[in-house]
Amino acid sequence: MDENNCVKTKKRKRGGVIPAIAAVIVLFIGLCLLLYPSVADYVNSLAYRRDIEEYERQLNQVDESEREAMLELARDYNARLLERSDRISALDMDWRAEYNTLLDPFGSGMMGYIEIAQLRIFLPIYHGTDETVLRSGVGHIEGSSLPVGGAGVHTILSGHTGLPSAKLFSSIDRLGIGDTFKLHILGETLLYRVVSKATVLPEEVGELRIAPNSDICTLMTCTPYGINTHRLLIRGERVIDSGGSATAGGSAADGGAGNVDGVGAGNGGSAGNSGAGENAGVPETELPIFPIAAAALVFIIAVLVVIVLLKRKKN
């Protein structure tokens, strides 16, 4: 009789241990899934930062006259693009072949990078908008003006929203009228101030037309979040100072446009006199401390609770 009771007691203890271990494993898996977006975004942000730093490093080795020649080719392309009525719908093979060679000094497809300081967005800009590009950074829409500024320019940049592994353009809906963003292209910095926001259907392209005397950059992403039936368009107009170059002040991080005398197309020249090595650079990527710490705390508490329950069962 005593032997039977002993066997039953051991079974009860064993039966209590297995569910407790299973609960810890399930909790661990759940926390991993919970942390995945934050950690994956951090890892991808490091990759974007490395790409930008490598771009700047290589650009420092390019002679200023070579950079200016590349910019001039892009301006000529934009002037000819303005004459085409089918530029958004389709470009023929010859145009596409030329397009892919412009603003690509190192053969990586990277034109430069976009900075939205107040949202801590620093992303490479690549030619085209195929899925590989949009998972690697921001895509420049073929058929829109190349991002070199000047009259009759409308650059359109597209980025993903809602990817589980990277934020990319997920937060650009927080940009308000008057906020600014910058494009860093071949050592030049182009500053744009947000002047309008619109939500349109994918087939509605009226907002994407090029106006002859404007200098515009539109940021585009899918919306609503997770549904993606429409497109959010955030239009920025080029900001120039009284000297005709882009002002360095008034980033979105400062909450305003800075000391600016005008907004408009300006001349067809560069965005300023900043050399390739004079950009402020990309700040350190912040580790998502809070979600990791919170998840670790929850896991530790859960393990402690399981240990206490097991000790009680033993007693």
Q: Can you put this structure into words, describing what you see?
A:
The protein is an alpha+beta fold and 315 residues long. It contains five helices and nine strands. It has helices spanning 2-59, 64-81, 93-101, 131-134, 289-314; strands spanning 110-116, 121-127, 138-140, 153-158, 180-185, 188-200, 215-223, 230-240, 262-263. The protein has an eight-stranded mixed β-barrel with strand order 1-2-3-4-7-8-6-5. Mean pLDDT is 79; it is low at 247-280.
Question: What are the SSEs and their pairings?
Answer:
Layout: H1 2-59, H2 64-81, H3 93-101, E1 110-116, E2 121-127, H4 131-134, E3 138-140, E4 153-158, E5 180-185, E6 188-200, E7 215-223, E8 230-240, E9 262-263, H5 289-314
In short:
The chain is built from 5 helices and 9 strands, in the order αααββαβββββββα.
Topology as a string of helices (H) and strands (E)? HHHEEHEEEEEEEH
**Contiguous helical run count:** 5
Shape: elongated
What proportion of the residues form beta strands (DSSP E)? Answer: 15-25%
**What is the alpha-carbon Rg in Å?**
26 Å
Sheet with the most strands: spatial strand order: 1-2-3-4-7-8-6-5
Characterize the biggest β-sheet. Answer: 8 strands, mixed, barrel
What is the CATH third-level topology name of the largest domain? Sortase, Chain: A
> What would the average pLDDT be, to the nearest integer?
79
| Total domain count | 2
CATH C-level label of the largest domain:
Mainly Beta
